[in-house]
Amino acid sequence: MKRKVCVFTGTRAEYGLLKPLIDEIKSDHDLQLQIVASCMHLSPEFGLTYREIEDDGFIIDEKIEILLSSDSPVGICKSIGLGAISYSESLSKLHPDIIIILGDRFEAISFAIASIVSKIPIAHIHGGEVTTGAFDDAFRHSITKMSHLHFTSTEEYRRRVIQLGEHPERVFNVGALSIDNINRLSFLSYDELEKDLGFKFKQRNLLITFHPVTLEENSSGKQFKNLLDVLDELENTQLIFTKANADTHGRIINKMIDNFVNKNQNKAIGFTSLGQLNYLSVMRAVDAVVGNSSSGIVEAPSFKIGSINIGDRQTGRIKAESIIDCKPQKDDILNAIKTLYSDEFQQKVNKVKNPHGEGNTAPKIKEIIKNCNLSNIIKKEFFNLNFDM
User: Fold this and answer.
1) SS3 readout for 3-14
2) Which of 26, 37, 119, 380 is a good FRET partner for 210, with 20 to 30 A between their CA atoms?
3) In the sheet where 171-173 sits, what is the strand order?
4) Mean pLDDT of 267-288
5) C-alpha angle 358-130-84 in degrees, rounded to nearest 5
6) What residue ranges do the domains of the chain occupy?
7) Given this model, what pLDDT does residue 251 score?
8) Cα 98 to Cα 149: distance, rounded to the nearest angstrom
């Protein structure tokens, strides 16, 4: 009898990371793939990105709408509650043998709650990481404590999951799934990107991805305005914006992007969703990723380009030497851009090594999920660090 593996996805970016693993599961004759798509995937405002999943040839077993029109703290909390209700109903229909959850978002913790109450084991990807500027941090560690198999992207993150009381035999350092995409995809050329996306590359090119800093009160708009003020002063630079996720106050940032692009159509273009191929192809073609997205931390170093990481949203993550940290203030951002284009930094970037692995992560995860003993895995004991590791 095939083992039923249910993959949960709530955002375009998360699906892009999961796709190599979904491919592995689908192609394995001993596994039955199930997909639950929710949250941003089903929102017209965020591009109805569930279509990308179907266009890739996958069947979505359950489409579950939980996202409200409000991105206030109250609205997000209501979405979490609606998710727990709706996900539990879907799990009772699907009866999966194991769940796969990646990351740390609010819809992910909602799905984890429904899974653990339904007595379904959880395999968690990208646990052990730290992002002190966002409440995703608390969500991620909470999902770790609800999960039964753990797949981390570095050895330090593996040790942190064990520090949370998880048994070392169930915690695996496999590297980042996103590196698999970089190794597998056939990227679009400059000409193809210009034709498909409708813009022209300039002498300098920057990919801008900025998300709300959810643990800071009403700061996201002010921080993003400082960034836009700096970008407005840049000459002969093409600015490619991707919009924020459905986080608290994310719509503020998206409206600011629309206004900036409308006023600067000669040098700026914005996208609700580029899709994984276009996004990574653009990243490969630009000089740097600018903002506070994890993609600037995890994927960008593999392309030998710089990242300007603004503010505290990603504070605590392991970073390559190609990452330039700066405060969310105009002078600091401007100095970071000057550093980016300096000869000294460019020479360093060409030699950088990505600390999140070299790929082949999806086959490793699939084999462990396929062959692990799931009987009595739900019952966990707290692993005490006084014992041998």
Assistant:
1) EEEEEEECCHHH
2) 37
3) 62-64, 31-38, 3-9, 98-102, 122-125, 149-152, 171-173
4) 93
5) 100
6) 3-175+359-371, 187-349
7) 82
8) 10
Order of strands across the sheet with 204-209? 268-271, 237-242, 204-209, 288-291, 306-310, 323-326
Q: In 3-state terms, what secondary structure has residue 161?
A: helix
Q: 288 has which bridge partners?
A: 206, 306
187-349, what's its fold?
Rossmann fold (3.40.50)
Q: How far is it, in rounded angstroms, from Cα 124 to Cα 108?
A: 10
Residue 165 CA, chain-centre distance (Å), reads 25
Give the tens place of pLDDT for each residue, 127-172: 999 877 667 789 999 999 999 999 999 999 999 999 999 999 999 9
Nearest to 229 by CA among 313, 328, 321, 82: 328
pLDDT of 70: 74
Show Cβ contacts of residue 247 under 8 Å, excluding neighbours closer than 6 positions: 71, 76, 134, 211, 212, 214
Beta bridge mates, 38: 64
Which residue from 319, 314, 313, 387 is spatially nearest to 353, judged by alpha carbons?
Answer: 319
Angle, CA of 206, 223 and 352, to the nearest 5° = 40
Of residues 131 and 334, which shows the higher confidence score?
334
Q: From 3.40.50.11930, 3.40.50.2000, 3.40.190.10, 2.60.120.620, which CATH number describes the 3-175+359-371 domain?
A: 3.40.50.2000
pTM of the model: 0.85
Among all chains, which residue has been given the structure tokens 């770790």? Answer: 144
